[in-house]
Write a structure and sequence with these properties.
79% helix, CT398_CC_hairpin, coiled coil, Zf-RING_7, 2 domains, 5 helices, Helix Hairpins
């Protein structure tokens, strides 16, 4: 096989392998991000629950203030009862007292309802905080595993990058420029095998003359359809 073609095949395979490292790293990071997203969601719910508890407490305080005002009003009505001079004033005070007592009853019911909500929210908060603790522990464990996996991937990438660099040290510059021009649009499929007399880049069948030249491997042959560099794999490799 033509030496330049051999070098192109090696270079293309190195580039293909190197291109796969970044998706592998992103895949590892995605494992962690799933748990982080869950933890952030729980934190958001915790903050929301705190806000709801504060709102309930605020409403309860307002009801307590209102309840104190109503009780003071009843005391005032009771005092006025001793000063009533006619039936009309008495009925007015009785009506006012009845309304105040109804409002007191409602305020007490509202305070009881708010207390019940506060208890439920406090329980919900404890559960969320417990879940967050579990998620954060899981994140720590996964972070270690992900960091180790990424370190291994980077080590593998460094080895391949070094092999690629060594190959380029003796690479023909014109051939490299030629390859790089094709790779700009073909990406990692700039150099592809021919199988069943078809280019494995565009999957178009090539004519007998071109196929014969590819089999000989004496020169660098481009696909007549897409322009990719073609080569014929060994029969054992092709079968595998």
């Amino acid at each position: 096989m033509n030496k330049y073609l051999q070098d192109l095949i090696k270079l293309s395979k190195y580039d293909g392998v190197i291109s796969m490292f970044e998706p592998k790293i992103e895949n590892e990071k995605a494992k962690l991000s799933t748990f982080v997203e869950v933890a952030e969601s729980i934190k958001s719910k915790i903050n929301e629950t705190y806000a709801q508890i504060d709102d309930v407490k605020s409403k309860r305080t307002k009801n307590n203030i209102h309840l104190a005002e109503l009780k003071s009003k009843l005391d005032d009505i009771s005092r006025k009862n001793n000063e009533v001079t006619n039936e009309k004033e008495l009925k007015a005070l009785q009506l006012e007292e009845e309304i105040a007592k109804e409002q007191i009853s409602f305020a007490n019911e509202e305070i009881e309802r708010l207390d019940s909500i506060a208890v439920a929210k406090e329980e919900e908060l404890k559960e969320l905080q417990s879940r967050l603790t579990e998620e954060e522990e899981s994140i720590k464990e996964i972070q270690i595993a992900v960091d180790n996996a990424i370190e291994e991937i980077n080590q593998e990438r460094n080895v391949v990058s070094q092999q690629r660099a060594e190959l380029l040290e003796e690479f023909d510059k014109k051939i490299l420029t030629f390859y790089q021009k094709i790779r700009r649009w073909a990406k990692d499929s700039a150099v592809v095998p021919v199988k069943n007399q078809a280019c494995y880049g565009c999957f178009m069948k090539i004519n007998d003359k071109t196929y014969s030249e590819v089999i000989k491997s004496e020169e660098i042959i481009n696909c007549p359809h897409c322009g990719r560099i073609l080569y014929k794999e060994d029969e054992s490799t092709e079968e595998a």
